[in-house]
C-alpha cells in the first residue's frame, strides 16, 4: 500500500513537471483540472508521463477519448472527488490535488472496472449462440467489432485460444467462452508498476 501511494505521488509530481507547474504553489481550479486530467489519462492508458515528448503529451487528451471508452465516467468520478475534497476551494495545494487523485483512482478500481466488465458481459450475452451456453460464435464476436457495435472484440484467435477463451470442440463453429473472455487479463488496465486494475 505504501509503495502504491508513493508511486501515485511520484506520477502526480511528474505530471506537474511536464505541465510546468510547481508543487509548492497552489493551483487554480482550471490548472488543477488540467493536471488531474493529464494524470488520469496517463493512469488509465498506462503511460509513463515523466519521459513523454511534448507532441505526445498534446495528443494525450485525444488518445484517451479514443482508446478508453469510459473516459466520461472517469471525468464524473473526478468531479465527485473534487466536490468532496474541496467544495468551494478557490485554489488547490499539492496535497489537495493528491487527495483528489487518490480518491478517483480508489473509486476507479471498484466502480469503473466493475461497470466495464458488466457491460462487456452484457454485450456478449446479447450475442450468445444459444441461451444459457455462455458462448458466442466467433463470427458473431468479430462481426460486432466490424459493425462498430463495440470497440472491443478484436483479439486474434491465437490469443483467445491461449487465454482459454476459445471453445474449439466444434471445429466448424468455434465459440468465445463468455466468462473466460470477461476475466482475461486483456480486460485489465495496467495502471501501476505494482498492480493492474481488473
The counted number of beta strands is 3
Helix and strand content put the structural class at: mainly alpha
The sequence of SSEs as H and E is: HHHHHEHHEEH
Can you summarize the main beta sheet? Answer: 3 strands, antiparallel
Mean pLDDT: 85
From the alpha carbons, calculate the radius of gyration and give it in angstroms. 20 Å
From the spread of the alpha carbons, the general shape counts as elongated
Instruction: Give the low-pLDDT segments.
Output: none
How many helices does DSSP assign? Answer: 8
Question: Residue share in helices?
Answer: 55-70%
Strand content: under 5%
Q: For the largest beta sheet, what order do the strands appear in spatially?
A: 1-3-2
For the termini, the CA-CA separation is 17 Å
Plain-language structure description:
- The chain is mainly α.
- α2 packs across α4 (71-85) and α4 packs antiparallel against α5 (94-126).
- It has a three-stranded antiparallel beta sheet with strand order 1-3-2.
- It has helices at residues 2-18, 29-45, 54-67, 71-85, 94-126, 138-146, 157-162, 178-182, and strands at residues 135-137, 166-167, 175-177.
- It is elongated and about 65 Å long.
- A hairpin with a 7-residue loop joins β2 (166-167) and β3 (175-177).
Amino acid at each position: 500500500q505504501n509503495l502504491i501511494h508513493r508511486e501515485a505521488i511520484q506520477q502526480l509530481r511528474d505530471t506537474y513537471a511536464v505541465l510546468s507547474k510547481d508543487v509548492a504553489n497552489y493551483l487554480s481550479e482550471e490548472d488543477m483540472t488540467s493536471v488531474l486530467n493529464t494524470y488520469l489519462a496517463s493512469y488509465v492508458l498506462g503511460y509513463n508521463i515523466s519521459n513523454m515528448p511534448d507532441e505526445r503529451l498534446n495528443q494525450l487528451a485525444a488518445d484517451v477519448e479514443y482508446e478508453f471508452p469510459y473516459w466520461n465516467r472517469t471525468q464524473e468520478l473526478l468531479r465527485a472527488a473534487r466536490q468532496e475534497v474541496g467544495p468551494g476551494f478557490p485554489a488547490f495545494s499539492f496535497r489537495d490535488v493528491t487527495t483528489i487523485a487518490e480518491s478517483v483512482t480508489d473509486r476507479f478500481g471498484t466502480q469503473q472496472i466493475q461497470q466495464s466488465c458488466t457491460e462487456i458481459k452484457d454485450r456478449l450475452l446479447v450475442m450468445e449462440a444459444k441461451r444459457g451456453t455462455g458462448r458466442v460464435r466467433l463470427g458473431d464476436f468479430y462481426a460486432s467489432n466490424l459493425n462498430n457495435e463495440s470497440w472491443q472484440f478484436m483479439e486474434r484467435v491465437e490469443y483467445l485460444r491461449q487465454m482459454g477463451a476459445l471453445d474449439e470442440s466444434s471445429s466448424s463453429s468455434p465459440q468465445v467462452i463468455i466468462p473466460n473472455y470477461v476475466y482475461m487479463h486483456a480486460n485489465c488496465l495496467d495502471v501501476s508498476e505494482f498492480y493492474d486494475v481488473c
